[in-house]
Amino acid sequence: MRRIVFAAAAALMIVAGAPPVMAQVPASRLARSVDIPFEAFTLDNGLRVVVHTDRKAPVVAVAAWYNVGAKDEPEGQTGYAHLFEHIGLFNPTENVPGGLMEPLRAMGATDWNGTTWFDRTNFFQTVPTSALEQALYMESDRMGHLLGALSQERLDNQRGVVQNEKRQGDNQPYGLVYYAQLEALFPPGHPYRHSTIGSMADLDAASLENLRQWHRDNYGPNNAVLVLAGDIDAAAARTLVQRYFGHIPRGAQNEPAQADIPTLPARIDRTLHDRVPNTRLYRTWVVPGMLDANAADLDVAASVLGGLASSRLDNALVRGDETATAVTTGYQPFHRIGMFTTTVDVKPGGDVEAVSARLDQLIADFIASGPTADEVARVVTSRMSQQIQALEPVGGFGGKAVVLAEGELYADDPGFYRKELADLGAVTPASVKAVMDRWLTRPVLAVRVDPGEREPYAEAADARPAPAAAEPLAFTPREPMPAVGAMKALDFPDTERARLSNGVEVVYARSTTVPTTRVAVEFDAGVAADPADALGTQTLMLAALTEATTTRDVDALNEEQERLGATINAFAGVDRTTVSLTAVTANLEPSLDLLADVIRNPAFKPADVERLRAQQLAGIAQEKASPNGMGARALPGVLYGAAHPYGRAWSGLGDTAAVQGLDRDDLTAFHQRWIRPDNARVFIVSDRPLAELTPMLEARFGAWAAPSVARGTKAFDAPAPAAQPRIVLIDRPQSPQSLILGGLVLPVTGRDDLVAFQAANEVIGNGFLSRINQDIRETRGWSYGLNGRTTLMENGAPYIINAPVQSNRTGESIAVLIDQYRAFLSDRGVTAAERERTVNGNVRQLPGSFETSAAILNALRTNALYGRPDNYWETLAPRYEAMTAAQMDAEARRIIDGSQLVWVVVGDAATVRPQLEALGLPVEVRAAQ
Q1: Distance of alpha carbon 139 from its chain centroid, rounded?
Q2: DSSP per residue, 313-324
Q3: Are the C-beta atoms of residues 306 and 314 closer than 8 Å to each other?
Q4: Based on the number of CB atoms within 10 Å of its own CB, is 751 exposed (0-12), middle (13-18) or buried (19 or more)?
Q5: CA 792 and chain centroid, separation
Q6: Kind and range of the H or E element at 283?
Q7: What is the CA radius of gyration of the chain?
Q8: What are the angstrom distances between the C-alpha of 645 and each of 533, 562, 704?
Q9: Tens-place pLDDT, residues 304-327
Q10: Which residues pair with 280 in a beta bridge?
Q11: Does pTM top 0.90 for this prediction?
């Protein structure tokens, strides 16, 4: 009893606005948490190898980085590095004739992909330890045994895929700005003047012999860095790397292109147009790159100006005079140069010229005054926290393998991150001001994008000349690819529970990889809880929830998070609403103080509500301008009907008229009905034991009492309308690509046992190797990628096909999709090979699927949402292994009725409507909703 009384008293102090219970830990201490021990060696052929040992999971990250990127492409060959990344990633090699994707999936690889940027090309995958030798065999075959498998047909296919990737990016709002920036900032012939994706014309002109020579010149082992990070040591790595890579001969030496930092002779003002709802302003300078002594100062300058939540531009333009709805500033460091860019979204209907002048003045004032010591400290602490979190995975897009590879590739030092952290810690207000004086007082590129018709778009040629004949290349087969060894079973962290004095359940798992804690306070609400006559209420309430409390205004709330290296977010899925905290554990107690204050004491100040309303309305307008947003706003209502809780846009942004009519009382009422202890559950993953954490939670939430108003309830008794197979066309003129969405309400929910069905769907719809993706992307080259997936919900489960395709293939693509599903659900069910690949992949990926605390937290939450047992993930392997192709077929045919699919197409009606009408389905044309 005494403990409970103390907890109540502590909670009362928080409500009354007591200061944090402990001071934040200094950034210098956080920096000591960032350590990646490594060993490095070089093979005789020049391949540089870096090894980091991390035994937390039976997986190894394999990352091959090549020192070639877009900046190394000569005139007329733009896009070659990226095109060859696609060839290396998706095409067969000489000794893996079926391609690398099949064995990667079958071995249970996670986080596998390839990327290209101005300075490098990389391929990476995280694999089970027992599959490491197979992965090294494949990676070495990609490096040394690729050209003999590259044919004209395969080149043409990947050319089409890349051109559709370009269309997909270009089709987004403001999607053409980057090209204009590069052309204005860099003089002709400068290595950074063209984009990584390249031009349609250069991609059209790429010949088989061009690409062969490109590989010979750039992808030898002496131009590469191989990083192995995870369940391996340097001695074992040396033996394996020598075995699989040692025979590859040294190639031509690629010296990465040198590039100066150009200075514009005078300010450039350029105006573009796009089908967007508001004007966006850009300010860009070319500045020094990642190896320069000024890099840390430029990063801090960008964060203080427009990167932090408490940034100068946010305070002046978004929260100050409210002439902008969003601002950003970022420093992008490349090998030879960097780019410093500010963007401002002008409030719709605002005075663009006045905002532009105000932006220039604010930047000039910041350069003249520099940041404060507190601003610098907040940036440094935030960066340290982000770096600690980024080091949790061994691989992927941003794990430890990436940090080591970047250091070795660009600085000849895998430990270069230590210098970067030291430089960051040495930043002062004076050093930032000096660097800004040096680089940001030069002439700027000022781009303005106004609403209107887009400038002409450079498409690919309708037809290319017949390619010149190229002789096949002879090659000598190597030894067979090694098999995958015995796998270790998944050992999911034990789930523990506690209960606070007020009955709130705490669900916990421990993860000790990095000193961080993740908390999710989850409420049984979600977008489905939004009032049907006031859609968007919850999103506005959540925005205001994290804006200010009764004890902290927006500046105090943001600045305290930054000083602590903590992040608090509030968001809604379809079924649940969550307020989350990510914190370095050393600063956990004061971070929990902030979390409790946000959840329990929202201010909902009228001025904040008005400002956030304008931002949400701007978000709705942006959603209505984006192809994905337009489709996502239409499909739920088409499937479920407007009366159903699942029949509204799942983004939760709501309706324009409804959001315009909301006031503070509406937000308070929603908060009282839904954000309350008798509707809450706390999930937590931490490096600290539950016994230490429970008193901290008790002190802040144990005395939290439910308000007197009734708790909210959701009604799912409104039936979904009977399916009416048809096509709903939403006109979006000047779209080089169409977005196809196919939807179907399934007769199941997320709480049903769908393991066999999901395995079957991997064959037809979900994943790179699915039949629909292999057909439309890999065989026909009409898309950058498509999928068909089940969206699990507590009280439903729609099946959604997502297929962005080039506009002139829209009708044909829907026909192909209809045929693929018809065949799969009748006489072309799961094959023995597809069953084996799917089962092996799903079993073998399990040990690597919960490498991070974020993944563990998500698993705890989904177990609770769908009513699964705590050991659910550990039960899956034997279930997959016992699964037959016949069982998979039976589940797919029981659950999916492909004849009932409804299609939503977002595209240029003038181009696609005749194609759609030829399909024989009713076509209904709508405006964006």
Answers
A1: 25
A2: HIIIIITTS--E
A3: yes
A4: middle
A5: 20
A6: strand 280-288
A7: 28
A8: 11, 37, 29
A9: 999 999 999 999 999 999 999 999
A10: 345, 449
A11: yes
